[in-house]
Design a protein that fits this description.
The protein is mainly α. It is built from 14 helices and no strands. The protein is rod-shaped. 26% of the residues are buried.
Length: 379
């Protein structure tokens, strides 16, 4: 249909690879197993990118974009994403871990319900006492009716049996019953103060407390508190890395490539540092200032850009969550690769974008890029 313009906003021009197969062969791109079914029947790289986005797989879409993008444009995209996360962290810095006052964690087990010994019912006790008295009176009447001679015969027989049992077992049965009775608790409903379950709970709490202290000590040793001077130095390194990246994007020559390598090696643990190394890899020559050309391994620069986005997405603090960031970075990548956002617009200013507050173009700013639209015919 002439009025169906599905291609608007999906015309990516700054691509290095047009097909998924080319990205696999040239950049060593690997299709993620969890989205492999979506790739079936799709050959165009750009089509696959937007299909992933339609299925809310923005992380996978960003990864594929990094592998098919023109390298210079990909670095500019990463530069924009690092600026975006820096603006987030400026608005909402990450919470610092206070190892001296760690958050309290309740390691106790649920309180066991308290059971009270039921108090006897006076009426029920009186009724039982009356029944016992009746039984005693009945026994006395029966005893009075027993023939004395027969009673003596039975008592002598029982005594003889007890005597034989005492001789064979070493203890008189009545004495044995008495001993057993003395071992019974005085109170019929006595409750142990420290049953096995509560003892185990105390042991478990002590173990967890010791493990918590050990874990905090290990974390503190690996993430020592940084002084203001150290933090200022790290910030300067990251700023220098972004400056090197911006210079490389504007003029990707051997001198700027070497600067990206030098400064990137000093702050590899930060997104800006890895982006600086990615710009060096994107130059295509691992010996930019030498006489011999050593080509960058396939996919190294693309993988670097992909990991820069990952580092930005998982940063603590900020105003967005990880999935929201990936969706933002995808939109920013589309803007860059379609030509809506490029470094040419920033050259008029003497201040690089990372040195001033710049929101992502598609969020708060109108871009200067206008997509081609068909002219009306027949008028």
């Amino acid at each position: 249909m002439a009025d169906k313009l599905d291609w608007l906003g999906k015309h990516l021009v700054l691509l290095r690879h047009l097909s998924v197969a080319d990205a696999i062969a040239s950049e060593a791109y690997k299709i993620p197993p969890d989205v492999a079914e979506l790739f079936e029947g799709v050959t165009g790289a750009a089509d696959m990118v937007f299909k992933l986005a339609e299925h809310k797989k923005h992380k996978n879409a960003c990864e594929l974009l990094a592998y098919i993008a023109h390298r210079r444009a990909a670095v500019w995209w990463g530069y924009r994403c690092v600026n975006a996360i820096n603006e987030e962290l400026a608005q909402k810095p990450p919470e610092e871990i206070d190892f001296d006052h760690p958050p309290k964690i309740d390691l106790g087990l649920p309180e066991l319900p308290h059971y009270e010994v039921p108090k006897p019912d006076p009426a029920l006790v009186a009724a039982m006492d009356a029944q016992l008295a009746t039984m005693d009176a009945h026994i006395e009447r029966l005893s009075a009716d027993v023939n004395p001679a027969m009673q003596k015969y039975v008592e002598d027989g029982v005594a003889e049996v007890f005597k034989k049992l005492a001789a064979s077992q070493g203890v008189h049965p009545l004495d044995q019953l008495k001993t057993m009775g003395e071992g019974l608790p005085k109170a019929p409903y006595q409750i142990k103060q420290n049953p096995l379950l509560l003892q185990y709970a105390e042991t478990l709490k002590a173990t967890l407390k010791a493990k918590k202290a050990e874990t905090l000590a290990q974390i503190e040793s690996m993430l020592p508190a940084k002084s203001p001077a150290v933090l200022a130095h790290e910030k300067k390194l990251c700023d220098d890395a972004l400056s090197a990246v911006y210079r490389w994007v504007v003029a990707p020559d051997s001198v700027n490539s070497q600067k990206c390598l030098d400064i990137g090696n000093e702050c590899t643990g930060a997104p800006a540092g890895l982006l600086s190394l990615s710009a060096f890899w994107a130059s295509g020559n691992l010996m930019p200032t030498g006489d011999q050309v050593i080509h960058t391994p396939p996919g190294l620069a693309a993988n670097g850009i992909d990991k820069v986005l990952l580092m930005c997405a998982v940063q603590q603090g900020g105003t967005r969550k990880m999935l929201e960031r990936y969706e933002l970075y995808f939109q920013m990548g589309v803007d860059v690769l379609s030509g809506a956002d490029n470094w040419a617009a920033t050259l008029a200013s003497k201040t690089p974008p990372h040195e001033k507050s710049v929101a992502p173009p598609h969020e708060n700013q109108a871009t200067g890029y206008k997509r081609w639209k068909p002219k009306s015919v027949g008028k």
